[in-house]
Design brief:
The complex is a heterotrimer of chains A (about 80), B (about 450) and C (about 350).
Chain A (H helix, E strand, L loop, with lengths): L7 E2 L4 E4 L4 E5 L1 H11 L4 H11 E2 L2 H17 L10
Antiparallel strand pairs in A: 1-2, 2-3
Helix pairs in contact in A: 2-3
Chain B lengths: L3 E2 L5 E3 L7 H4 L8 E2 L2 E2 H8 L3 E5 H16 L5 E6 L6 H9 L3 E4 L2 H9 L7 E3 L6 H9 L3 E4 L2 H14 L3 E8 L13 E2 L4 H10 L4 E8 L8 H22 L5 E3 L17 H4 L3 H13 L10 E4 L3 H4 L3 E12 L5 E5 L16 E3 L7 E7 L8 E9 L6 E4 L6 H4 L10 E4 L5 E5 L4 H5 L14
Parallel strand pairs in B: 5-21, 6-7, 6-14, 7-8, 8-9, 9-10, 10-11, 10-12, 12-13, 13-14, 16-18
Antiparallel strand pairs in B: 3-4, 5-15, 15-16, 15-20, 17-20, 18-19, 21-22
Helix pairs in contact in B: 3-11, 6-7, 9-11
Chain C lengths: L4 E7 L10 H9 L5 E8 L15 E4 L7 H15 L3 E3 L3 H16 L9 H6 L5 H8 L6 E4 L5 H4 L7 E4 L5 E4 L2 H15 L3 E5 L4 E10 L4 E12 L5 E6 L3 H14 L2 E10 L5 E7 L7 H5 L4 H9 L15 E3 L9 H10 L3
Parallel strand pairs in C: 1-2, 1-4, 2-3
Antiparallel strand pairs in C: 5-8, 6-7, 6-8, 9-10, 9-12, 10-11, 11-14, 12-13
Classes of the chains: A alpha+beta (about 80), B alpha/beta (about 450), C alpha+beta (about 350).
Chain lengths: ~80, ~450, ~350
């Protein structure tokens, strides 16, 4: 699962996709996940990291993470054939 | 290391017309307590969903309303509109504050009597007064507001039979310059129907014309329409005085004052544009005082205000069942409050406020109720903070009509609690149970058994 | 003695194809002879061009939409005032005026002045009150009706002839020629601006506008009439010329003296073939073409500022006729960082 390399993420939670010209805002946990994805982390590793840092059940993060990654795909922010 | 509070990850496309966070921030201060009682504890103790009524707010509202009218007019009487919320605890709170009862059916009439109201302080309105209830109303010297001529004849016949005098008024409908004009109730002012009815009453030996009544509409946003209506009733009263040397005792201006809810289709919020009780008081009393009643001859002014006195005194608490993504990418949230409990969601854009802290991030959301019915939509589009399953929400301004128009449908109706002046919650209506509902049903013998 | 320096908040920085008056007002304020100014842009959206015009707008803050309620607006303005110490706010959107009028006492308490019509003046000139307004002040207006439901059309068309003009409560207007077009227009307008929707008799003829300024006591401080020369497909003037039409000056005097109008305004009129002027709309704020008034010698925003701040103001007595304004568009180059800043922090 990879985020496109040229997607820029700023500390204010502002995301810019230079390919499409779209801008987005993400919340802090979303930003954290995008950064982990840019580092090439797998779904399992991201899952684990969120579970360690946040007060949340595994089934909740699993569902929300799936939805978030779907939205990244919907907005063309993910590499095609993104499976690593 | 202490773990952080979880919020679901969110990515939102920046669009030019997107409301920025400053536009929405305060609407989303969490509502963690009602009258200093914790929302979470209320739900833990009494279940979800849950209606919560504030006794303090009710008393506060009626006192403010009385002040608004009494500082402008010498004789004022409020009558609690049962149909708006006829929970006995609510009715009695108003009765303790001096309000009479205003009822529109035999059921409501009996409920008022059951609550211990003296019959002479019941105003009996509505187009369907059964003959049995008219007997009671005449025997109890209640104020019967005649809606149509068929009713006039029934009252006359019953009064003759009982050999008693009925205390009556007529309901008058009229053009006050607003849309829609409510001409289905009572007798029309402009075309002379009202005078026809008044003449019949004045010529009857068994009726005493004690008042004139109007009720010009619902959720009225124009105080001026009340000034027009009060002026027309005053003209009728003075006409009766001049023609029959008969002075009526009261003018009843009905209800219909808007509450602070936001009507669907309205651009600005209700709290900004809806008139206050002071605006209505100014319009009505101004028109009466400047009419041609002689000095010291102003009639008693009766008000049947319902919605504006109760709407903001009640809240509906609920719980998030699930968050879902719709096929077009929109976010939806399902909560355990359906349109069967929140009838007013068909007319209002109700605020939905989380009951726990959250961040400034929000997402445009469709809010669905729990019913397996497509119409069960509380808000088509609301910018909601990110709620997790199991978290709670509070819907404000639900005191009027919801607790009378709610339906037992698919789910059972929940408890209602009232928080007293000291902050103690009391259950004022129990949760429905299967056993109670089955008590109404009867099974024919041949349907009792089946094999599958 | 040096000139005083005022800090003035201005809304409607949407200098787009259907422009708001914010930017021309700021230009006028910057050119004021009687004071210096720091201009604070108040924006709703991140792409309002004025946000990025740093030579005109010294600083911009996002403010909440009127639909979120006056409490949020007051909270935000209180914050902005802490940073900027505003002397005056000049709001310019019809849809926000109600909220600002309502907040006037609170803003005054913060030391911020407004110079707006009263609630009554504002209500009286609402589009749906135009027939009563015309009757009360004896001003010729087109026949119009407010409707709440689309199915009232049939009944209504007994009194009207196609085409009719369909207008929203705050904005939007379209000329419709058939029932089908009407239904489309009604739905579009009512979904955005709510009801009522106004149906107005269509008057064919040349369009004239007047802008002016009333002092709230019945005196005309400024008045400039203009004939539209070029109209965009959105019905906006893209070019216009100042004219000397005596009737328009008299009508404006009558309007101001009878209503005791306080603040800037725009009257929209149509002159039919018979030469009669119909008043079709009263806008309770300065128009987007306000800069023409400055160009012909009446700096209305400057005079409005001085009136609001209690300074002595002489009424303008003349203006140059035959001056034209021709609008043009201009492409700015903006760095993404600026867009990011206004989008995420609400300030730039």
């Amino acid at each position: 699962m990879k985020i496109k390399q040229d997607v820029a993420v700023s500390d204010s939670g502002f995301v810019f996709n230079p390919t499409t010209g779209d801008s987005f805002s993400v919340n802090p946990i979303g930003m954290e996940i995008i950064k982990l994805m840019k580092e090439g982390k797998s779904m399992e590793e991201i899952n684990k990291s969120v579970l360690e840092n946040y007060n949340v059940e595994e089934k909740t993060i699993e569902k929300d993470l799936y939805d978030f990654i779907e939205m990244l795909g919907h907005y063309s922010l993910r590499e095609e054939n993104g499976q690593t | 290391m202490k773990k952080q509070r979880y919020e679901r990850p969110l990515i939102k496309k920046l669009e030019d017309n997107m409301p920025n966070k400053f536009g929405m921030r305060k609407e989303y201060l969490p509502m963690t307590h009602i009258d200093d009682v914790s929302v979470k504890e209320l739900i833990d103790q009494y279940g979800s969903p849950l209606f919560v009524i504030s006794e303090r707010k009710i008393r506060d509202n009626i006192r403010k309303a009385k002040t608004a009218f009494e500082t402008r007019y010498p004789k004022v009487q409020f009558a609690w509109s049962y149909k708006t919320n006829y929970l006995n605890a609510v009715c009695n709170t108003f009765h303790q504050e001096g309000s009479w009862a205003e009822v529109v059916s035999e059921f409501e009439y009996d409920k008022a009597i059951h609550n211990g109201i003296n019959g002479s302080k019941i105003i009996y309105n509505g187009p369907d007064k059964t003959e049995e209830s008219i007997v009671k109303a005449i025997n109890n010297s209640s104020l019967i507001h005649i809606d149509h001529l068929d009713e006039f004849y029934t009252i006359r016949d019953v009064a003759i039979r009982l050999n008693k005098i009925a205390r009556v008024a007529i309901r008058v409908n009229m053009d006050t310059g607003i849309y829609p004009m409510w001409d289905r109730f009572g007798f029309n002012y402009e075309n002379g129907q009202a005078w026809t009815a008044l003449n019949k009453i004045m010529h009857s030996d068994v009726m005493n014309l004690v008042g004139l009544h109007t009720h010009i509409g619902t959720f009225m946003l124009s105080p001026n329409a009340y000034a027009v209506a009060a002026g027309k009733l005053a003209d009728l009263a003075i006409g009766i005085r001049d023609r029959y040397k008969h002075e009526i005792e009261y003018i009843d201006m009905g209800g219909g004052f808007a509450s602070m809810n936001k009507l669907r289709g309205s651009y600005l919020p209700g709290t900004d544009i809806n008139p206050t009780i002071n605006d209505f008081a100014e319009a009505i009393t101004g028109a009466l005082i400047s009419s041609n009643f002689g000095p010291g001859k102003l009639p008693l002014l009766i008000l049947e205000t319902g919605r504006a006195l109760i709407d903001d005194a009640a809240h509906l608490l609920g719980t998030v069942i699930s968050n879902k993504r719709l096929s077009d990418g929109r976010r939806s949230t399902i909560i355990d409050i359906g349109v069967n409990l929140l009838f007013t969601s068909f007319w209002y854009e109700h605020n939905i406020t989380p009951a726990q802290p959250f961040t400034q991030y929000s997402e445009d959301t469709v809010v669905y109720g729990p019913l397996c019915m497509n119409i069960d939509v509380l808000r088509e589009n609301i910018s909601l903070p990110l709620l997790n399953r199991g978290e709670h929400v509070v819907i404000q301004n639900v005191g009027a009509y919801n607790m009378t128009q709610w339906m037992q449908f698919i789910t059972l109706r929940p408890r209602i609690v009232m928080i007293d002046m000291e902050g103690n919650p009391h259950v004022v209506r129990e949760r429905e149970s299967l056993e109670r509902l089955l008590e109404f049903e009867r099974m024919p013998d041949h349907l009792k058994d089946f094999k599958l | 003695m040096g000139k005083p320096k005022y800090t003035i908040g201005v809304t409607a920085l949407n200098a787009i194809d259907s422009p708001g008056p914010g930017i021309p007002i700021i230009r006028a304020l910057k050119q004021a002879a009687s004071f210096d100014v720091r201009t604070i842009g108040l924006s709703y959206e991140s792409l309002e061009p004025g946000v990025y015009m740093h030579d005109l707008v010294d600083k911009t803050y996002h403010i909440p939409y009127p639909s979120s309620g006056i409490d949020f607006l007051l909270e935000r303005l209180t914050y902005i005032n802490k940073q900027e110490k505003l002397d005056l706010i000049i709001p310019n959107f019809d849809a926000e005026l109600f909220s600002f009028i309502k907040l006037e006492p609170e803003l005054n308490a913060l030391g911020i002045k407004l110079f707006l019509p009263s609630q009554e003046q504002f209500e009286e000139r609402q589009k749906f009150n135009l027939p009563e307004f015309g009757e009360k002040y004896d001003i010729l207006v087109p026949k119009s009706e407010s409707i709440f439901q689309v199915n009232k059309l049939r009944e209504l068309m007994k009194d009207f002839e196609w085409p009719v003009v369909v207008k929203g409560k705050f904005y939007d207007a379209s000329i419709v020629y058939s029932e089908n077009q009407f239904v489309t227009a009604f739905n579009k307008i009512s979904s955005k601006w709510g009801t009522p929707v106004i149906v107005q008799e269509f008057i064919q003829g040349a369009e004239f506008n007047v802008t002016g300024l009333g002092d709230g006591k019945g005196n005309t401080i400024a008045v400039v009439p203009m004939r539209k020369q070029y109209i965009t497909d959105k019905g906006k003037a893209w070019g216009g010329i100042s004219i000397a039409e005596q009737y328009l000056l008299e009508l404006t005097d009558k309007f101001i003296s009878q209503t005791k109008w306080r603040g800037g305004f725009e009257l929209e009129l149509i002159k039919n073939k018979a030469g009669k002027f119909y008043l079709v709309e009263i806008n309770p704020r300065m128009p987007a073409w306000i800069y023409l008034a400055i160009g012909v010698g009446q700096n209305i925003p400057e005079a409005l500022t001085n009136l609001a701040l209690g300074n002595k103001v002489e009424a303008f007595t003349k203006y140059k006729t035959g001056k034209m304004f021709i609008r043009y568009s201009w492409d700015m180059i903006v760095d993404l960082e600026e867009f990011e800043k206004i989008s995420t922090t609400g300030e730039l």
